[in-house]
Amino acid sequence: MLRRTALALAALALALPAAAQEAPWPNRPITIMGGFPNGSGVDIYARKLAEPLTRALGVPVVVDNRTGAGGNIASEYVARARPDGYTFLLATAGTHAINATLYKSLPFDPLRDVTHIAILGDVPNVLLVSPEHSPNLRTCRDLIAAAKAKPGGLAYASTGNGASTHLSAVQFAVAAGIDVLHVPYRGQGPAMVSLLAGESAFFFNQSGPSIAPVQQGQLRALGVTTRARLAPLPDVPTIEQACGLPGFESSTWYGLIAPPHLPAPIQARMAKEVARIIAQPDFVTWLTDNQGITPPADPGPEALRRIQEADIARWGEIVRRSGAQVD
Prior knowledge:
This protein is of the alpha/beta class and about 325 residues long. Helices cover about 45% and strands about 15% of the residues. It has two domains: about 30-120 and about 250-320, D-Maltodextrin-Binding Protein, domain 2 (3-Layer(aba) Sandwich); about 125-245, 3-Layer(aba) Sandwich (D-Maltodextrin-Binding Protein, domain 2), CATH 3.40.190.10.
């Protein structure tokens, strides 16, 4: 009798870890990592997405920003994390397309060391100037004329060497035939401060953090980098319209990814919930009217993969043309 009891207890002890492993996902908090500071476009989107995801999944979804190296610190962390469905990354065209060429070597493969979940939207930049420090720059053509009158004399801010805010300006300078000075800053906040202080003449910032300062009159928007105007800035023309640069377009994307080898059922569930959330009318309104972000026509994992593959090639050419390189 005692022997049978001991055997039964031993069998139960062995079964407990297996049962724990089979607990339905999710059963504890989920983290969405971000590679950029609080208040950045990535941070704003991640926190907005976390709220409805918490309700949909029944567990807390929290945001953890680990900044540095153009988003590579957070990207490497997620690439090396356990594929258990509790760690995700709000990736960007910068972290998972531009950096593939910008950095001589990366501690992860931006295409292979991921599980694609969803494309979250198309993110434009806005060409900004300070009305206080640059009162004569009222239009994009004014800016181009000022740059041509003083080659190399106008400085522009960016959120870092090789960031989309830098490369949009490179595209602009090449298309307009101007010579301007690049001054990289460590993130959106310092770059905006430099513009407001008159240390930089212009800044191609992401739409999300740009809209409120423009609407409040702190900054003047000379153009947007999409082929159509943005709903929250209806009076701001496109760069193509404002600058006389046919075909000009320079936008990036946000996407949700996970560590490689995420189990297919978790990938499918997360992709389904994210697609449902970002298609909700109130979320679409927030994207378009508040952030100037275009919702994806197809948010699925394969759509994200296709976009990423195409952008690695597209941005790679722009990076090479810019001469930007980070060790």
